[in-house]
Amino acid sequence: MRTVAEVRIQDRAARGRLLVRNKPYWRQLSEGAHIGYRKGVRKGTWFARYLCQDSKKYVSSAIGDADDIQDADDLEFFSYKQAFDRALRWIDIARRGGGEADHVRAVVTAASYDLTVGHAVQCYIETRDARATSRAGRAIHSDAYYTLTRFVTSDTLAKTELARLSESDLHSWQKRMHRSKASSIQRVANDLKAALNAFYAAHRRELPADLPIVIEYGLKVEAPDMLVSIARENQILSDDQVRRVVAAAIAIDEDFGRLVILLAATGARFSQIARMRVGDVQPEFSRLLVPQSFKGKKRAVEYTRVQVGDDTLAALAKVIVDRPASAPLLERWRLRQTGPMEWERVDRGSWRSSSEMLRLWKRAARDAGLPASSIPYALRHSSIVRGLRFGLPIRLVAALHDTSVAMIERHYSRWITEGLDELAARAVVPLIAA
Fold it and tell me: Per residue in 356-372, pLDDT tens?
């Protein structure tokens, strides 16, 4: 083993005087173990290496960027001391992994061993919260904040290092979740999967290459047959029930009534209706342009053209006259509390969150005689089932409601069958002569 000509790389100033070159400057940590620094044109990079006893060759890996131009943050840029600790840790883990043939997953940068599931979840929550705040126009928490904080960050899984994350860790986490329905577990698992995949995409150079496979199979919820949930029958409203709840909503408050009318007429989600503008109403074509949801990876704002009746257009006539096309279509009064059980109107603004309509919805549902368990989403369920019963093609029903054919078939298979039976019955003709 050759003696390494050591260079002073501990100080930032000393590293600044080194020459730019492709290979690192090495400094010995222990027998057969070294920490290295490679001087680049724009930045410096820390390395670690050790002598493999099987092949008698050095195994090396980058362990992060040096703090040459940015202060060390112990995540992306490392000081010499931080790189020193990570080099020792990586060498220890890599040596315990075995020979060169066992380094398919073990040889990753030392920085990855400080990246945990909790880091990934926190970054995802911050991103989702920022998106929710931007849409609502005020600081709010997203759904991911509540679900992941309750079921992940408070669990031992949050402390698990991503470099050592295994499928058994994720399966054990699922068993520790105390939720009654597998579909509920699936919703939390989907958020966790999105958090881990997003974090891997941002740190893929520091994490094992097979981590996405571990995430995919580790978060596959057991008993998949339980997940094929059918839309609850008590959430499918008849046309008469829809009319009654619309009338009750209008009687309570005109602004709330218009919101319920659009939810019933389009079958869209609250978030889509809240983003509609005055220009999205096209009375001359008897239709509305409903913005598509934020689901998926849409890069451009697209619209779904939905035909509506004259009664819906008449209900919207008051709010589209003499208003700019870019103004929010639906608005509501914002109230300020002035005393015990006393409120006053302050100004008008667009609907921000579906929670703003829950109190009014419960009152309207009670006045309309709907089941106590009815929720606003029942209007979307009912709209989808109405289209299926009228014999509309499943692809058209899916497009009108901004969803996929697979989701329609999965959750509304019973009503698809009923609608097809009626169509098939119309094609039956007498075959035996009288």
Answer: 899 999 999 999 999 88
